[in-house]
Amino acid sequence: MDDTVAVGTVLARRYRLDQRMAVYDGAEAWKARDTVLGRDVHVHLIPVDDPRSQRLAEAARAAAAVPDPRFLRVLDAAVYDGSGYVVREWVRGRSLSAVLVDGPLSPTSAGVLGRELAGAVAAAHAAGVHHLRLSPAMVIVADDGAVKITGLGTEAALHGIAVTDEEAAAAQDAAGIGRVLYAALTGRWPGVGTDLPPAPTVDGRAARPRQVRAGVPGELDDVVDRTLNPAPRHETPLRTPRAVADALAAAVPANGRGSAYLLDVSMDPESTQPGAAGAPLVALAARPAAPGPPARPAARRPDREPRRSRSAARIVGVVAGALLLVGATLVGWQLLTSAFPNIGGGPPVAPSAPAPVTSASRSGSPSAASQELTIAGAADFDPYGDPPSENPDRVGRAIDGDPSTAWTTMTYYDPLEVLKPGVGLFVDLGKATRVGSVQLTLRGSPSDVQVRVAPQDAPEPPKALSGWAEVASRSDAGEQVTLTLKAPVQTRYVLVWFTKLPPVGGDYKGEVAEVVVRS
What we know:
- The chain is an alpha+beta fold.
- 23% of the residues lie in helices and 25% in strands.
């Protein structure tokens, strides 16, 4: 780079360089002022003798021919005093990667953002232009909430990425859309090359979004799975931006104005424009929608210190958003379970054929006044999950007589109480029996836990939480808990229901090592 390029330099007698935003691999990014039109612009500079200079100019010209307004417009590309430069429009705010430092977006916001991103990239591919380096740092949102994408073609040129095969380029950008959507939903990155925490892995692959964060809608989870997984669980892989755009358009339909809100955050008047990957870009802003936007839960990551205070307005917004999400999920769950009677993802518990998981024999003879009851089976209970499943393969560990094994809930990156009403497991006593108390051996504390029972004559466990009557509860429970009913009840099914989970390494997870039911 020419040593004369400094603050105050005027390129082509027009663009005054005001603030260097980033320096990377011999290239520079600047905030500049177009003195002819009186507006701020973004400028990329690279030495004209750099072998990437020609590729950058060609990529900029190709990007300028894409008419989709969701891409930052290329305004100029030329050479001045030994430097090649590309001028783009300036938009105030932060990058998606900067926004995600505060936690993932709400599922609605993430879905809208993914839909807009996929539609824009699909339009670029239709014009013969590829991005090839999509990441949260390349996604920005204008003050009015409109999604903007930067780096179309040029980021790949600056980093030496070239794909000549159209099918490979389409697959690469489809996967890039899926990774950005994954990050928006979870605050984690299923790959390398960003400042976000890495996504956890399951069987050598990134865990699905709903395995990382509760409340992720199944439709969005499936879109991510179909973009990143060569053998997705449902339907066929999505290998082109158009296919991803169509799937997200179906999963996240636009409202009458063409788009819903994204996220309501305060705009920083000093916020900056994109420079290189990882440079701060634009803050997500509010776009009106009806009804009013539910606020996203305040997520915490295990590698960050928790925020120690929240405004009353944010707390109310979080609760409102969680209730709206719970309501929508509950309706879908009730419709589903009316056709399929099995509860949760665990083994089916039928009145004539209890689940095969059985309680192991325990030493000692219970007294006649408080006799330990035989447990015929158990299953996880998660009516507000999507899908409704909480480690069903581990539920037998809670009734095996071995306190060294335990059933665990999913790991939550937000407190359970801001996500949904609760989660738990129920045990089947085989027949209606007198129940007077429940003893729990838990791991981690404190927990808020309830004991709920099904009606005496219930032929099967209730599908909705409203079908279980609360008969005992404990707040801030430790690891050894005895919940004694005010009066014994006759029931076949006993539900252990958590409304708050203990913190574990900055996350939240419940563990039940043993459930003992006594008469």
